[in-house]
């Protein structure tokens, strides 16, 4: 099952999480962030797709806002405020790169790039090559990323195009591989494997990051700050904390934990 370590695995390093959207960093790495804050090395969460949409909104974007209880005019402001509260709970600093997420992006003709939400998990990554290159340059110039002692990047489990773009841009950064941990995208990682992109674990090195009860509680409280996302996480399941806890406890013999990966170059 890999190494079992707690906050000592940070070795005094300050972590930076690359988060595709406002909630992804806390959903996936909130326990580690809480552990870093407790150890005196509070981290940073760099949210990539955090930009305001350019009107008019697509029908799919308006549908998403209604499902989340968000008004079209202030959806980003609401989500940013939720993120600020979550950062306070887990003890991290937010940085936002301001790129509009997939539901808001448009093509050269001004049409929605992803007019249906089903396309977001099926899109060819090659179609976003220009954005990947631009993001890699922005990340390389961003002090929170450039100077990060430990960078946490998504495996893109669940196949969301924004997660895949974030992963691809992170791959282009010129970093020592020992300073990059790849995290499991929650809540996607707890879905049945039949719904996930195949991930070959046979040639990887997992690190099980054990958490204290207090650190796990801070993570769950941080997740709870994203009230607008509660109706859509796990398809509206109100028992997300229970399922996240069950998965976390399965990683370390009953103790809550998060799992991170060091990937060989062939799998990056």
Automatic annotation (TrEMBL):
The keyword Zinc applies. SUPFAM superfamilies: LmbE-like (SSF102588). Keywords: Zinc. One of its GO terms (biological process) is glycoside metabolic process. InterPro entries: GlcNAc_PI_deacetylase-related (IPR003737), LmbE-like_dom_sf (IPR024078). The keyword Zinc applies. It comes from the Bacteria. This is PIG-L family deacetylase. It comes from Amycolatopsis balhimycina DSM 5908.
């Amino acid at each position: 099952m890999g190494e079992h370590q707690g906050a000592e695995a940070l070795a005094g390093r300050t972590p930076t999480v690359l988060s595709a959207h406002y909630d992804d960093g806390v959903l996936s790495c909130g326990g580690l962030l809480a552990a870093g804050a407790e150890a005196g090395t509070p981290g940073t969460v760099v949210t990539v797709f955090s930009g305001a949409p350019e009107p008019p909104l697509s029908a799919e974007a308006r549908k998403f806002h209604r499902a989340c209880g968000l008004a079209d005019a202030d959806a980003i402001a609401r989500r940013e405020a939720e993120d600020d509260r979550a950062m306070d709970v887990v003890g991290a600093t937010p940085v936002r790169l301001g790129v509009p997420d997939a539901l808001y992006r448009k093509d050269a003709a001004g049409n929605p790039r992803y007019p249906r939400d089903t396309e977001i998990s099926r899109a060819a990554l090659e179609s976003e090559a220009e954005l990947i290159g631009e993001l890699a340059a922005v990340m390389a110039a961003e002090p929170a990323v450039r100077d990060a002692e430990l960078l946490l990047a998504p495996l893109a489990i669940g196949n969301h195009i924004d997660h895949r773009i974030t992963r691809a841009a992170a791959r282009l950064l010129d970093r020592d591989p020992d300073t990059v941990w790849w995290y499991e995208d929650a809540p996607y990682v707890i879905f049945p494997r039949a719904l996930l992109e195949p991930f070959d674990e046979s040639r990887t090195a997992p690190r099980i990051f054990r958490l204290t009860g207090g650190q796990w509680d801070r993570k769950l409280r941080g997740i709870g700050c994203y009230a607008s996302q509660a109706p859509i996480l796990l398809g509206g399941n109100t028992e997300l904390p229970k399922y996240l806890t069950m998965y976390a406890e399965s990683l370390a013999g009953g103790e809550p934990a998060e799992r991170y990966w060091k990937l060989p170059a062939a799998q990056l």
